[in-house]
Amino acid sequence: MDNIIFLILRRMRRPLLTLVMVYAVSVLGLVLIPGQDAQGNPWHMDFFHAFYFISFMSTTIGFGEIPYEFTDAQRAWVTFCIYMTVVAWLYGIGNILSLLQDRAFQQAIRERRFAQHIRHMREPFYLVCGYGETGRELTRALTDRGQHVVVVDRDELKVSVIRLQNLRDYVPVLHGNARRPMVLQEAGLQHPLCAGVVALTHDNEVNLKIAITAKLLNPGITVICRADSHDVEANMASFGTDYIVDPFDTFARYLSIALHAPGLYLLQRWLTSRPGSLLDDPVYPPTEGHWIVCGYGRFGKAVFDRLRKEGMSITVVEETPEKTGEPDQGVVQGRGTEAETLLEAGIPEAVGIVAGTDNDANNLSIVMTAKALKPDLFVIARQNYRENDALFERVQADMVMHPSTIVAEKIRVLLATPMLYEFLGLAAYREEQWACALVSRIAGLVKQRVPEIQEVVLGEDPGCAIAEVLREGREVLLQDLLRDPGEREQRLDCIALLRVSRNSRELLPEEGRPLALGDKLLFCGTARAFSRMQWTLCHMPTLEYVLTGEEKPRSWIWRKLKGEAA
User: What is the pTM of this model?
Assistant: First the structure.
């Protein structure tokens, strides 16, 4: 508000002083110039009548001479005043229009509205810093789940775009540099309902500054940062950053899982992808043989290190090794888009190739050239921009690494379904046969679409039927929640993945065990199944039918007809 007042006073100072001066001179002239009354006697207008006359004369240019007819001297002065006040008003109105179009004034108005909206928020929200591809995907994913988001970005174009997107919930957005503590405070960093801060800019130093600011100004808040430098990650960790997401190291871990346990990798992809999208096909990377890695940047180094740990033979192709560095074994210098370079790297003997440069056109060219030389190669391609989705689909790479998607999916799991993150950590210790069996069960439920993920906390809402029944000490089994509330003998299309009790965690919990108040359950299945399960959890007559098989009359009329007490 102070900025708005300051801008108004600064831009309107001269126009206001001009209007005051014009009015003062005009009024003073009418007071000093002698007139005459109805009888022709000398008469001077007082200040009240002079100010009244100048006020409606300067705004309407239509008036009567009051309180008596003017003399020629008064009419001459009024004629001069008409032109003088019109010019003054045009000058003032012009400055008002210029002020309304001033970018600083418009920004101040937007910031005031933004601050008012933040102050009046009554539900938990996440502060997302950076609205690039990762920020867009994460914001859409969170709002689709009914969670609230506040966005900060320094790019005015991105700020304008978010207002045009068809998001499920209104997303307040602030145009500002998130590395400045004042901007984060305006965005609600210290708001009691701010549930977490997510730093997703493409500048490691900015993300580090956001993490430091968040932990110093609000130590108890959850902070998640994107980083692609090990030095910056270590610095973030020293300030207590809760989660640090490196898309390149994350994909390298995914590749390692796919090499050792393809079923577990497929299970992870199905559960963490955007609900409703098509299910990924299983991938089987070759576990031995020669690999070619094109591009020895951050991604290439992460994949190279992971493949070397797996005992693979690797040749690196790099155009500018003097900038990126090179492994001990040396590199084949080139882009990898030329057949000669790939032949020098040993593509006839290779089993897999990684197109991992930071240029999508080069990566596509590498894949097409490599497949022309050896069609049965296992191909991993790096996609840097979402707008190239159609192109990467056409080249049919076996695995596509899109940094923004990897970061968005991981953070979405952390914020929207934290139990899924815990489930995947526990599932990593299970055998491959277990993962394959679960994949088969999920495929039978959801057909060709990624399943929905739902967390249920028994007793979280004291008014729900399930909480009331459990408080009464009645027995409720997990299998009861999996019954269809319309026909209890039929089963809902969902699977219980994890049960977290007071002192235990159980993967794929037994359906015959009784549930307890406070238990946390993680399910995967169809949206229809969860919609029907909600009736069972919250509607007492439905829960009674599911538990006992007896459908009691629900309305007052039917209870009367059945002879039951209302």
Answer: 0.80
